[in-house]
Amino acid sequence: MASVFGAAVKRREDPRLITGNGRYTDDIQLPGMLYAAILRSPYAHARIRSIHVEKARQLPGVVAVFTGSDVAGKVGPIPTAWLPPNSGIKTPAHPPLAVDKVRYVGDGVAMVVAESRYIARDALDLIEVDYEVLPVVVDPEKAMAEGAPLVHDDVPGNVAFHWEAGGDPAPAFEQAEVVIRHRFRQQRLVPNPMEPRAAVAQYNAGSGDMTLWVTSQNPHIHRVLLSNILGIPEHKLRIVAVDVGGGFGCKIPCYADEALVAFAARELGRPVKWTEDRREHFLATTHGRDEVIDAELAGKRDGTMLGLRVRMVANMGAYLSTAAPGVPTILFGLITVGPYKIPYAHTEVYGVFTNTTPTDAYRGAGRPEATYVIERMADLFAKEIGMDPVEVRKKNLIPAEEFPYTTPLGLQYDSGNYHGALQKALDMLDYDRLRKEQEQLRAQGRYIGIGWSTYVEICGLGPSQVAGAVGFQGGLWESATVRVHPGGKVTVFTGTSPHGQGEETTFAQIVADRFGIPIEDVEVVHGDTDRIAMGWGTYGSRTTPVGGNAIAIAADRVLEKARKIAAHMLEVAEDDVEFTGGMFKVKGVPGRQVKFQDVVLQAYLAWNLPPGVEPGLEAQAFYDPVNFCYPFGAHACVTEVDPETGEIKILRYVAVDDCGPVINPMIVEGQVHGGVVQGIGQALWEGAVYDDEGQLVTGSFMDYAMPKARFFPKFETAHTVTPAPHNPLGVKGIGETGTIAATPAVVNSVVDALRPFGVTDLEMPLTPEKIWKITHGREAR
Predict the structure, then answer these.
(1) What is the CATH number of the domain that holds 650?
(2) What gap in Å lies between CA 328 and CA 366, rounded to an integer?
(3) Which of 571, 605, 623 is at the close of a domain?
(4) Cis peptide upstream of residue 518 (ω within 30 degrees of 0)
(5) What is the pLDDT of residue 781?
């Protein structure tokens, strides 16, 4: 049988999903189901003088109405699960429903539970809330200013935390011949997966068991947090994530809404369902990015980078979401030097409360912002010293022979071939020819730009010891159970929780390849805390590097036991048996062999097992990596700008990524495509905007622009293969690389196209109006 590891196998998930046979949380129907709706604050900051719910309770079909006072003491505050050390972090209480104050538009005020969705929504209109409107602050820098309105009275200056990493970069700046200083803004983004958030809760009063179906990227984390919030022991709380229609980070957090649904089911003794609509998603589901970043790069005129100083002010919104503090600190602050050999670096981060929707992880989570800063600074540095931006990168990329490489921010990059990835992209692009063509076209009045992004990212989260050291309130190992059934079929149980990444296919490929069986014989089970021992979920491109390796280790343990049984059946020593192509064979004796399936059957029949070997054939593994993974690559974007209309057209996009050995090239390519599209979306179209009163003026798809397939050329993708040296499969993450690399590549390209207009930088998103004003001399450059 040909190896299925590395084969472009079609995704096994797709037939059920694209034919409408997927089962999402909102599809769950239970007898006696009730429906919840949540009244949300129309004000960004206000004191609640009074709430009158009598009219809503009297509406026929309404079963209950709960306010903040009703749930106080029965539902605990919503916690933060990442507490960066030495940051002075402050975690003011986040009540599930506001009691005295609302702190952002969308803050929950009351919940109605009714016999139908429509009655529940109608009842919301009958609730009367008397608000005393208070001063609002939405800009994080203004929030830090003296006299700014306080989001929380017990948090002076609205500073949630202040974190630093690295040493003093002063020596680099003292010897610098060139210093580049620049300010960047990472606009706020709304994740917008196809499926909005939802929850269905069912409580068994007889046993005290609670089952909660929820749109989660990490069911076991939800169980840990909700157990504390609801006061239900973990063994009595089952969390199930059925098919999840995308997450992009916004389904990592534990939300008040999910706890409220479970509370209502327990109080009322009937199942309760809640599903947000798209408007609610814009207001109440976590956002991403929203940071102001000041950077300084010290260098020499020969192109050598000497030192980097970065200061970020991160808008955390009104409350600290589950993983939010880790995004601008660990996931941004430790990777700001990128793939470059920069001797000195320092990162400083302020996390600031404002009267806006809380922020948390959004695809890439900190790594896109870090890559954007260093890649834009690389281009600004190149322009200042008159060097081609590719040559600046070549001069400063960490050489392959210097790995493992410890950065001045404390990370150890385990492996890399950065120059190789860049050279491959240069060859694909035919860079020198393209530069000549660019000059020719400019002479004709056409403005073509070429932009680069050479990146490295930190992913594959664990290791657990490091997780604890950086303040993550959990482990980051992963569990797997591989169970071989008597007939030779296999069930794999994984603690990760895929939701669109294709692991039902790739995990099956890992096991099928190891056992020499058809991929159709392997089932992958995930997303159910009652069926999975424990796991830490899917985010930070950890599913395959951590979860996949746990599966590989468990599969190898199955083979170890099977080999003992096979040797006994073949009446030879265990060392004389080799396993290839699904057969246990006696070395050097052609034809003397036994099939994997026959060994499996004997393991269950137990008629003739070796001494000390127990019946059955399954194994469990708990894999805790010793280091993060560090995927890397080089992306290039070619754009054309129409100065008359401000329109930007992407002519070519080249992506060379290194995620180690590729399990499934088709799935990897799909992940790159999706990531690139999201990264370009931030560069050109997306952006959430609040007015001075804290109203989200981009609160629907009428105002929040999203990328469409017709906007893009055919992506040109390729790979280099540098295995991660510390995990059995050598694999690294790929799900976020496109988002990390694409944004600076596109912006660098557009800035390059507009150099004849004196442009050195542009603030995202690069809308046609913004470009038109520049090309027509109506906006500063």
Answers:
(1) 3.30.365.10
(2) 6
(3) 623
(4) no
(5) 55
Angstrom distance (rounded) from CA 227 to CA 222: 8
Q: Which amino acid is at 738?
A: G
Q: Could you tell me which of 640, 645, 637, 650 has the C-alpha nearest to residue 770?
A: 645
Separation between Cα atoms, residue 291 and residue 348, nearest integer Å = 13
Residue type, position 509, single letter: Q
**pLDDT tens digits, one per residue of 221-276:** 999 999 999 999 999 999 999 999 999 999 999 999 999 999 999 999 999 999 99
pLDDT digits (tens, 9 = 90+) for 275-332: 999 999 999 999 999 999 999 999 999 999 999 999 999 999 999 999 999 999 999 9
**140 with 357: CB under 8 angstroms?**
no
Task: Based on the fold, state whether residues 236 and 129 are members of the same structural domain.
Answer: yes
Residue 153 lies in a domain: no
Same domain, 643 and 520: no
Task: Please tell me what DSSP assigns to residue 563.
Answer: H
Residue 237 CA to residue 220 CA, distance in Å, equals 10
Give whole-number Cα distances, 549 to 16, 252, 625, in Å.
27, 22, 9
Q: How far apart are alpha carbons 127 and 341 in whole angstroms?
A: 60
**Whether the Cβ atoms of residue 95 and residue 338 lie closer than 8 Å to each other:** no
622 burial level (CB within 10 Å; 0-12, 13-18, 19+): middle
Going by C-beta distance under 8 Å and a sequence separation of 6 or more, which residues neighbour residue 125? none
Q: Which domain holds residue 656?
A: 364-373+387-460+627-775
Give which of 362, 382, 236 is closest to 303, Cα–Cα: 382
The enclosing domain of 49 has a CATH number of 3.90.1170.50
Sign of CA dihedral 733, 738, 740, 741: positive
Pair 587, 597: CB distance under 8 Å: no
Of the three residues 596, 623, 650, the one that is the final residue of a domain is 623
Strands (E), 680-747: 716-719
Scored b (16 or more CB within 10 A) or e, 414-450 reads bbbbbbbbbbbbbebbebeebeeebeeeeeeeebbbb
Which residues are paired to 346 by β-bridges?
166, 309
SS3 for 154?
A: coil
The phi, psi pair for 443, rounded to 5°, reads: -65, -20
Q: H or E segment at 257?
A: helix 256-268
pLDDT value, residue 1: 62
Domain count, the chain: 3
Residues 30 and 69 in one domain: yes
In a domain, 320, yes or no: no
Measured CA to CA, the distance from residue 162 to residue 757 in angstroms comes to 39
* 520, 526, 529, 535 alpha-carbon torsion, rounded to 10°: 120
| Count of beta carbons in the 10 Å neighbourhood of residue 207 | 8
% of the chain with per-residue pLDDT over 70: 99
Q: Does the model's pTM come out above 0.70?
A: yes
CA angle 201, 204, 209 (to 5 degrees): 80
Cβ distance 688 to 704 under 8 Å? yes
State yes or no: pLDDT of 780 exceeds 60. no
Per-chain mean pLDDT for the chain: 97
Residues 414, 630: Cα–Cα separation, whole Å: 7
**Contact (Cβ atoms closer than 8 angstroms) between residue 82 and residue 29:** no
